[in-house]
Amino acid sequence: MNSLTVHQAAERLRDFDNVLLLTHLRPDGDTVGSAAGLCAGLRALGKTAYLLPNPELTDTAAPYFRPYAAWAGFQPDRVVSVDIATTDLFPENAKPYADRVDLAIDHHPSFTGFGKENLVRPSAAATGEIIYDILAELGPITAEMALPLYVALATDCGCFAYNNTTARTHAVAAALLQTGIDFQTVNKTFFRTKSRKRLALEAAMLGGVEYHDHERVAVLSVPLSLISQVQATETDAEDLSALGGQIQGVDCAVTMRELRPDVWKFSLRTGPRVNATKACALLGGGGHAAAAGCTVEAPYAEAKRRMLEAIAQVVPDFTM
Q1: What count of other Cβ atoms lies within 10 Å of the Cβ of residue 221?
Q2: Strand locations in the chain, DSSP E?
Q3: In what order do the strands lie in the sheet with 210-212?
Q4: What is the tens place of the pLDDT at every residue in 205-216?
Q5: How far apart are CA 202 and CA 261, in angstroms?
Q6: In angstroms, what CA-CA distances link 242 with 77, 101, 189, 314?
Q7: Statement: the pTM of the whole predicted model exceeds 0.90
Q8: CA distance 95 to 89
């Protein structure tokens, strides 16, 4: 893998123009905020830069994405991926660029090094931390850059509550706040506001939770029938994987969301006893030690069994 330092990546971007930025499937705050912040930084240098429209963009993240969305027919000279660990996570409209990524910027340990050049820092709480360092090399960081970067940082570390949060994370957040951004609205939108449909989803998930491994592992499911029953949107179903980890005594929360009939997206949120990325890697996925995911095509009971067996392989004292 051709790896770059932050300084080298900044110099590459200084030379780039007509840039298209890619975000991942089911875009979260980190991929959207990092891409938008970088796009704002490139434009501040006089560059032409856009984000490739993402068909799964939620209403929550949309305000930070849409000002930078590419117009139909934009032909880039350079392609940069942001917060994408593997080309398997490219949306359908990004797949034609899979072999054209000039620079890939990521923080996942499972990053596959698909870019012509790559900058990966697994110690970063969010890709937004890395983008901040790049932009600091390129010039002053403005409020326009800082706001989406704060979204990236805050969402990927659970408003600074997850164990990926470091002193460096807080230092970057403090620097972003010093630009005068409205961080209170970000925090309320992402962490303190839930729709009634979202509350109905959470109630059903908690009502049907299954416990394993002496109740240290909780399995919560979101079948298509539940989404249909409450008429939930993608915005209502955003980041449901955070729910299970709030249950007292649970150090491995497994959230199963049915994407299509018998196609389950697993999201693991774990404590130090369970390495989430190792478990998900056994099923073709990846991520971080405490937060990872994979997709399994099988009926519910079979998909759940495969995941529990994968967890058992990485946890010596696991019991069904």
Answers
A1: 19
A2: 19-22, 49-51, 78-82, 103-106, 117-120, 210-212, 217-222, 252-260, 263-270, 286-287, 291-297
A3: 210-212, 217-222, 252-260, 263-270, 291-297, 286-287
A4: 999 999 999 999
A5: 21
A6: 38, 31, 16, 22
A7: yes
A8: 9
